[in-house]
Integrator complex subunit 3
Amino acid sequence: MEPSPVKGKPQGRLLVSTTLDAKDELEERLERCVGIVTSLINGLSEREANDALTAHVCKGAQQHEEVCLGLFTLLLTEPAQAQRCYRDLTLVNRDGMNVVLVKINQILMEKFLKLQDVCRSQLVWLVRELVKSGVIGADGVLMTLMKWTMRERTLESGMLIAMSVYTYLRLIVDHHGSPTLLALRQKEVDFCIGLLREKFMDCFIIGRDLVRLLQNVARIPEMELLWRDLLHNPQTLSPQFTGILQLLSSRTSRKFLACRLTPDMETKLLFMTSRVRFGQQKRYQDWFQRQYLSTADSQSLRCDLIRYICGVVHPSNEVLSSDILPRWAIIGWLLTTCTSNVAASNAKLALFYDWLFFNPEKDSIMNIEPAILVMHHSMKPHPAITATLLDFMCRIIPNFYPALEVNVRQGIFNSLNFIMEKRVLAHLAPLFDNPKLDRELRSMLRERFPEFCSSPSPPVEVKMEESVSLEMDNHVLDKEDGCYDNTEATFSDDEEELNNKGKKREFRFHPIKEAIIDEPADITPFVDQLDETLREKVLQLQKDSDTETHCEVMQEIVDLILEEDFDSEQMSTLASCLAELFKGHFRGDVLPDEITEESLEESVCKPVCLVFRNLCQMQEDNSGFSVLLDMLAELYQKQPKIGYHLLYYLKASKAAMGKMSLYESFAQATALGDLHTCLMMDMKACQEDDVRLLCYLTPSIYSEFPDETLRSGELLNMIVAVIDSTQLQELMCHVMMGNLVMFRKDSVLNILIQSLDWETFEQYSTWQLFLAHSIPLETIIPILQHLKYKEHPEALSCLLLQLRREKPTEEMVKMVLSRPCHHEDQFTTSILRHWATKHDDVLGEHIKALLIKNNSLPRKRQSLRSSSSKLAQLTLEQILEHMDNLRLNLSNTKHNFFTQTPILQALQHVQASCDEAHKMRFSDLFSLADEFEDSSSKPPKSRRKAPVSSSLRSRKGAAQPASNEEESVSSSASVSTRSAAALSECSCAPETLCSSLPPLSIPGGGGFQAQSPQAEEERLVCRGLRQRLRDAHQPRLPL
């Protein structure tokens, strides 16, 4: 079955995309290569163009790749130039077309469904030309193309011949019965017969699955002749072929089992068996079913999927020992999706096919293990599934091929024996002689397999042996109880109805839903315990099937309960009867497909809703109110779904408007006795049964019970774990319209931190819902301290996009700078670069303040920071590292961020007090401050010329020139006076640098020398260098 291409608006010449899709990187690169080729050959003759291309290719490997990919893209997008482009490509390539082959494989594996129709046709044409030209590696490309249904024929490779036969034998089955495909099917039949008769030993490498495929087409007249020769005259096909047993004893390579799955299907299946946790597979299976298994033509695909899972998907021991979705669970789900008898029989044959001629020396335990585990795990929740598989296993022995009955029996015996030897199951007797199986089947099993029916011990799952990759039961039994669904699976055999009592909801598959035949309600154990009046009403409910009659009788029962002489000891018995009688009301969807006032009112006209309505009409101080609550509490124990049905009634019914608080009274009346626990359990049940109803209830639940819903992320996780993109958008609209509040400032940070352990889509949904609220980003900015670049890419990407819209505050900059420096983590550098472009002055002031604060504050004062600051743990070294990374990032641009006065002043301040190690480590960064200092200095008055170094600038009490000594001594008194005044008037903290004054002017003299003692003093005071000031104005003796 060939998948349909993606539909969308063509934006590029190569791929089909929608207006919402980002530009594809591969397409952009190929278009750049087309531009290079076009610029080289534009306006030239063919010979001149070839010379230009050859000259460009000779420049290097990059130019060679650009020309080859440009010609390849032109060939796909311009059919009129295809011949010329292919000729030029063969002339200029220097690597045997390797660049082109690699790119074709990439397109086939990743982009084939998105290719435009013209490009897809051209790609097939190109592959044919490569085959005709004998290009090495073309067979590999052709095998990949056959995954999308190969159309061309080649006989160059034995493996390719076998792959072609395998592919077309399966396609013949899919094309059977369609008049429009009759001619095509005949070509496929002729093609396969020709290859099988002429190249049989090349086809022999397919192995035993060749027989399975030929069985499916053996009724076609031409194939029937081949089938007879295969069974009775094997030598006519090949002298080396001894008979069908030789073929059936050969194991099929995984290459063939994988070739009938498209790359997209294969990727999804591998993801499910390696990444999806057991119990969280529902949405993935629903998507897979909608995408690939929803049409009638897809029925034959089940056997291909099962063969692929058994023969190709062999998980590692690490996966087997985890809680990843096991293979048997996927196969069980696939079996339940079969809606035709033929598809179900073929699926069962595909599951047991490796059992029939199993040889422990050649075959793998992993090929036979899924079948035994499907039967074992289905026995308790779904005995009909186990029964039909065991029945198939018994009947296949004499019916597969009577002439080889002994061999088939031995193969199945070998399989069962090897299963016990490898301890997949410790004993088979509890499986073969289980009382849930009917007597005839158990008798047949004892007759066929007496060796495995003797042990009375129950099956015990043991730990996996390290030497053999076995798929053990890594999950507790309560996860098995509901692993498929409450809906009965349908196979070719007639099954008896399953008893669904006691099943848990946590882990289920959801097959294509079929009509459910309800068993008659059995209230015999309870009805005799009721008094005569109640018994009569309950039996009337059992007898009648009309909903209106049920409602009338239910109202009469409520009236009896509210009577003063009602015996409360009958409450539990009555609840058991009602739960059994109304179990059908709790199946299926509650919410109408089209939500209108009429449809909502109609949906709450059920007998159970009579209890809800009577509660809404009563006052809480009424004695009957508590009696009905006790009745509901008893019903809740028998039927847990009553909880979210009550929530739905309180929201949907006009009679219950404004009565949502009634649910709190109900929760307190239950055995749980706690609103939060009861609410979470009911919403969990709703999540598992009806996602639409969950989304419908969400606004009311959040608005009516804010303390229970907003304080943790439990309910939010339930919602984002199951919603799709449409439902997410609807919730965001509710938020923006003011109907829904899912976050509040005091708890949003904790919820977002909790979400870091959720699945990727769940995290993105959570961030989308958060951004729909009007919560300041500063509220959650401390989450940056919890984010690691390899473990939390979802949160980091959402934060990055939001931060770029914000004007930076000091707290934001502080949190961004507090992230550890790592060469692979580009978060801090990217947002700093953006802010430096858009808000350079604001960012410069914030960085200056943080640099000076972290450089000057003593350690004991750092403990007095706020709680968010404690989280940050920002250090001076971190700031300098991020500043240096930003400097390198901006080095090749014309941006002048590092020429700002605040930045350079702060760097001067840090440089003056940091140790030599930091000066050397960040010398390039500090050199910016040196350049600023030199450029702002004035010409010296001193006649002495001496080089100025950083050590001289930082030296205290350097000697003045002799000519100025007397002036310095004479003015010391006035300077001291002005010092005190300046110290008292300066508003700057002693540890900080006053930005209102220019930096120190350091001319070429031997020490600090300002234009006047007063100017020098003011600068020194504002730098906080009091000790230096005192030293500078001490009287000195003449030399």
